[in-house]
């Protein structure tokens, strides 16, 4: 993946969730009480920070940008001042004034985890970079000699430098013991201002921001801004309990809602990157979806919970032990599955070959099974078997189906119209805000014709992977009248 500072990294975001560079701060206030004196202000964290700043680094990258991304379809730019000019400007990178590819630079943050020269940062900070330089607090610089591994799904990367002497390193803490209200501190490189420290509290844990199938973020109000991506979030023992990754902001600046990858997730991924150069996630071989209020009663549940199996991969681990569509997985390896999103995280955290007890509900009866985890196949690394299927965040709020004769009759769609029909739009979604409605037909996605829902999903995932901020639909109404609609990626 390519660096995401400025326009480049902003494309990596979904909706107004913005990738960030390392660092946020920490601010500890003395407890209030009768007679408490505040003449000297809140309790200082200088002693904690002093021993950590040397291990926090600035990451600078350079990358050559051509007119359009390799493998992109032929460009059909709109005329200047046309209604579509803003859409095309979002999709295509211009060459420099001399017509040649231009070089862009980006800045992020990182931190040393091994004195021999192992450095952690975000994948989006170094993605696609031609050169990566690590800048230390003493003014020295080291060139990254190797990317040991990177993982787009958790936005982590492990870098290797060759120092002349052992580096100052920091250690990971246990993120599972974090509580809402605990003080945390971030150090990083916001807006290129290296060594910046901010403080705040843990605002929430286990946040799902629709960034990927394994979302489990720590939310903090410690200030995190552009350039903080990849930096450490420390607890008050000076241990790294998170890797700063994203913010929610309509302006790109901190509004007190930042997100960090929990240290326990990071350690698992980084250990695999160090050992194998890649992640080796557990694999169950199912597609799942949430149980809605309407579904709960028919499935024999007293309330919506668990992960509803929509389909099972033939010959996969789940199929081997007899897991079937319509089963509701309630517990996986002793972890309660409250929603569909809990299952991918639990499975991915498992070791390949591990035997895991599974509790599920089938036709109102509880069934206990033991499944042996496989390894998530290479071809599924960009499309995990455990995801939302054809709905939710993947489709920007749209429900889509093949254009059958029955649906043509239902929506009175002309026989000359071909594509994929929209049968539902989630209120308040990105698609709804662009006035897409049931009965509209998706003719093209990013200038490629689509005829099946799977083709729409594939094109949307390609857009997300490219880092673009909007996806361009060509829609037809029932009479075949065409219109372009650019929908923000969320």
Automatic annotation (TrEMBL):
MF-aspect GO terms: serine-type endopeptidase activity
Transmembrane segments: none
Binding annotation for substrate: 124, 155, 227-229
One Pfam family linked to the record: PDZ_2
GO cellular component, one term: periplasmic space
Catalytic activity field: Acts on substrates that are at least partially unfolded. The cleavage site P1 residue is normally between a pair of hydrophobic residues, such as Val-|-Val
Coiled coil: none
GO BP annotation list: proteolysis
Occurrences of domain PDZ (ranges): 273-364, 383-451
Key words, A-Z: Hydrolase, Periplasm, Protease, Repeat, Serine protease, Signal, Stress response
Family annotation (Gene3D superfamilies): 2.30.42.10, 2.40.10.120
Location in the cell: Periplasm
Main location: periplasm
Record EC number: 3.4.21.107
Active site: 124, 155, 229
Protein family: Belongs to the peptidase S1C family.
Protein name: Probable periplasmic serine endoprotease DegP-like
């Amino acid at each position: 993946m390519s660096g995401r500072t400025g326009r480049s990294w902003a494309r990596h975001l979904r909706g107004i969730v913005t990738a960030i560079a390392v660092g946020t701060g920490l601010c500890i206030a003395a407890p209030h009480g009768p007679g408490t004196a505040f003449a000297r202000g809140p309790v200082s964290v200088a002693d904690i920070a002093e021993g950590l700043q040397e291990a926090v680094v600035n990451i600078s990258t350079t990358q050559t940008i051509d007119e359009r991304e390799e493998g992109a379809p032929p460009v059909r730019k709109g005329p200047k001042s046309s209604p579509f000019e803003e859409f095309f400007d979002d999709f295509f990178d211009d060459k420099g004034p001399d017509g040649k590819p231009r070089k862009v630079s980006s800045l992020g943050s990182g931190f040393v985890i091994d004195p021999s020269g192992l450095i952690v940062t975000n994948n989006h900070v170094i993605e696609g970079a031609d050169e990566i330089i690590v800048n230390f607090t003493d003014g020295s610089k080291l060139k990254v000699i190797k990317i040991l591994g990177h993982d787009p799904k958790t936005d982590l990367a492990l870098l290797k430098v060759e120092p002349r002497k052992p580096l100052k390193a920091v250690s990971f803490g246990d993120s599972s013991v974090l509580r809402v209200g605990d003080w945390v501190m971030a150090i990083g490189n916001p807006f290129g201002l290296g060594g910046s420290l901010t403080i705040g509290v843990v605002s929430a844990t286990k946040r799902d921001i629709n960034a990927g199938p394994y979302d489990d973020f720590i939310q903090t109000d410690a200030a995190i801004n552009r350039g903080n991506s990849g930096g450490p979030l420390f607890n008050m023992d000076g241990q790294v309990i998170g890797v700063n990754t994203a913010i929610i902001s309509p302006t790109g600046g901190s509004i007190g809602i930042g997100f960090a990858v929990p240290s326990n997730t990071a350690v698992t991924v980084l250990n695999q990157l160090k050992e194998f150069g890649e992640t080796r996630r557990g694999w169950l071989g199912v597609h799942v979806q949430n149980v809605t209020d309407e579904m709960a009663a028919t499935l024999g549940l007293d309330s919506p919970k668990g992960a509803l199996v929509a389909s099972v991969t033939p010959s996969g681990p789940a199929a081997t032990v007899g897991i079937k569509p319509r089963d509701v997985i309630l517990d996986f390896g002793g972890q309660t599955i409250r929603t569909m999103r809990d299952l991918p995280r639990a499975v991915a955290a498992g070791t390949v070959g591990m035997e895991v007890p599974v509790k599920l509900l089938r036709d109102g009866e509880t069934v206990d099974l033991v499944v042996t985890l496989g390894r998530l196949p290479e071809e599924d690394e960009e499309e995990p078997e455990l995801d939302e299927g054809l709905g939710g965040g993947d489709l920007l709020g749209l429900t889509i189906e093949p254009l059958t004769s029955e649906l043509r009759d239902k929506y009175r769609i002309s026989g000359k119209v071909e594509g994929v029909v929209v049968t539902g739009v989630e209120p308040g979604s990105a698609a709804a805000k662009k006035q897409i409605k049931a009965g509209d037909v998706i003719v093209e996605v990013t200038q490629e014709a689509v005829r099946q829902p799977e083709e729409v999903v594939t094109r949307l995932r390609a857009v997300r992977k490219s880092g673009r901020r909007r996806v361009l639909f060509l829609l037809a109404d029932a009479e075949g009248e065409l219109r372009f609609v650019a929908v923000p990626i969320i």
